[in-house]
Design a protein that fits this description.
The chain has 233 residues and is mainly alpha-helical. The chain has helices at 4-29, 32-35, 39-46, 50-66, 71-82, 84-117, 119-129, 133-142, 148-156, 162-187, 192-222. The protein has one domain (4-229). 81% of the residues lie in helices and 0% in strands.
């Protein structure tokens, strides 16, 4: 006879897959994959629409990054549509929404399944994230490697407090989002000089962001913590 206690984690795992499957169908029905490569589409949806346009951009950013679309792309579009400052801010808020979505779904529906199947590995990740949860989350997001979606879901199956992980992630998103928002703003600049300056600044900041992430990594290595067990975009 099947063990009811053993069946529940499996059912939750299937429910998690169903949630993400439904979100993917929603994204496809909206034509999101094609629209995100069309700069004029995003302008048409947000320019002149006031708060409605802002909320639309936040929703699209949250949904797309929550499904694994690189956050650099939405930051680029934010810079193109809103300018580098507001583009950075809105892209960061939207990406934090996507992070919260993945984290919440994983914690609510996926945690029991992962702990039942991968208890020892999950325990190691849990111990790592609980060591200074805000600082650890910040460090992971600063590293220019890995996958945003997988990192958020992996954190969701641990015991790290949601507020520390999501806030640390949001702060860690800022440097790269700023880089790509400036780049997007430069592409939309009217003058050749303005475009060149924006692109030059974004390249310099990208190098600085990579250096910052590597510096944090080395600091953790000196403390005996191995960040290679986690992934980030």
């Amino acid at each position: 006879m099947a063990n009811p206690g053993g069946l529940r984690p499996v059912l939750k795992g299937l429910a998690m897959l169903a949630v993400f499957g439904g979100l993917i169908l929603l994204a496809r029905s909206l034509g999101l994959e094609d629209h995100l490569t069309d700069r004029q589409w995003i302008l048409g949806q947000v320019q002149g629409h006031g708060a409605t346009g802002v909320l639309f951009f936040l929703a699209i950013t949250g949904l797309s990054t929550g499904l694994g679309v690189p956050r650099q792309l939405t930051a680029f579009l934010g810079g193109y549509a809103f300018g580098w400052f507001w583009g950075t801010l809105l892209a960061t808020l939207g990406t934090a929404l996507g992070c919260a979505l993945d984290f919440t779904v994983a914690r609510t529906l996926g945690r029991d399944f992962v702990l039942a199947r991968f208890g020892k590995r999950a325990a190691k990740l849990d111990a790592f994230l609980r060591t200074g949860p805000f600082r650890t989350s910040l460090a992971i997001r600063l590293l220019p490697v890995g996958h945003n979606l997988l990192t958020s879901m992996a954190a969701g199956v641990t015991s790290i407090p949601a507020r520390y992980f999501i806030l640390g992630s949001a702060v860690g998103y800022v440097p790269q989002n700023l880089v790509f928002a400036i780049f997007g703003n430069g592409v939309g600049a009217e003058s050749t000089l303005g475009r060149a300056l924006s692109i030059g600044v974004s390249v310099a900041l990208l190098a600085a962001s990579a250096w910052l992430g590597l510096s944090v990594y080395r600091a953790y290595k000196r403390e005996g913590v191995d960040l290679e067990e986690t992934e980030e975009e």
